[in-house]
Design a protein that fits this description.
Rossmann fold; 8-stranded mixed beta sheet; 11 helices; 40% helix
Length: 288
């Protein structure tokens, strides 16, 4: 590995290793292998589903804070991170069903839980919510697409063939284009997470974002629904309010929120605000 890339990846490695080392590890069936799950803390489960081409690391700045009084449950979604590829699927529904089945094995089929999904994870969260019963207390969608609205163009560059400084520059470009509102906030930990996620990503989910799949699924949800965006989310800005309106067409009582100054990866870029807003929303709406 080129020296520059080595330094970028290795500098925050101790932080990620510490967080990972504190988790309990489990596996559930997924395709020809297993889905990898990590669990931190104790209490009522809060399930976090990461974004496309991601892994549990998308929540690296959230799990410790949220696990103070919750059991935080994070899978690597099928075909991403350490999880095996799912069987071929034409829609997100079969993938969501795999996650829901795995979750029941991890926390118990009758255990009540709150669900929060980011980007592609919000799409799967919507499909899980559509089939869930009273065990689902709430679903929070973060940076969601697939609401039937055009998404902004976010030009990305190919990373896989790059090495060294060019690879770091490609990661930084893609994070600035899609994930962050402020390029200055792209720190070594974010670059290391992007590198690890990119290397492990096999399942391609981006094609689902331009559909109505989430809107159609979340219409069948009976649990309280919330939708959050960073104010400068690249897939929604400057039309965040149109996304709120689209959600309210099928969930009129949905709670909505915006975190000022943050981009698509709001849970990382504005971690303290995101953690506080999510906890406050659950407390005020559900009595936690």
């Amino acid at each position: 590995m080129h020296d520059v890339l080595s330094r970028v990846v290795e500098a925050p490695a101790a932080s990620l290793a510490r967080i990972d080392g504190a988790a309990r590890r489990l596996g559930t069936p997924c395709g020809d292998g297993e889905m990898a799950w990590r669990v931190w803390g104790k209490g009522r489960p809060l399930v976090l589903l990461h974004g496309g081409s991601g892994s549990w690391r998308h929540w690296a700045r959230n799990v410790e804070a949220l696990a103070v009084d919750r059991m935080v449950v994070c899978p690597d979604l099928p075909g991403l991170g350490e999880s095996a590829m799912p069987p071929p699927a034409e829609s997100p529904a079969p993938v969501a069903a795999l996650v829901r089945q795995g979750l029941a094995a991890v926390i118990g089929a009758d255990t009540t839980y709150d669900l929060c999904g980011f980007s592609f994870g919000s799409l799967l969260a919507g499909h899980i919510a559509a089939e869930a019963g009273p065990e689902l207390r709430s679903v929070t969608l973060v940076g969601a697409g697939a609401l039937g609205l055009p998404r902004q163009i976010t030009p990305l560059v190919k990373v896989r063939s790059e090495v060294g400084e060019a690879r770091v520059a490609a990661h930084r470009h893609n994070l600035a284009s899609l994930m962050f509102a402020d390029p200055a906030a792209i720190d070594p930990l974010a670059l290391a997470i992007q590198e690890a996620n990119s290397v492990a990503a096999r399942f391609r989910s981006r094609g689902f974002a331009s559909t109505t799949s989430l809107k159609d699924a979340i219409a069948r949800c009976t649990a309280p629904v919330a939708l959050l965006y960073g104010e400068r989310d690249a897939i929604a800005w400057p039309e965040v309010e149109l996304r709120f309106a689209a959600l309210r067409e099928v969930q009129p009582t949905a709670w909505t929120g915006v975190i000022p100054g943050a981009g698509h990866w709001v849970a990382y870029e504005a971690a303290a605000s995101f953690n506080a807003l999510l906890a406050d929303m659950l407390r005020r709406r559900l009595g936690d």
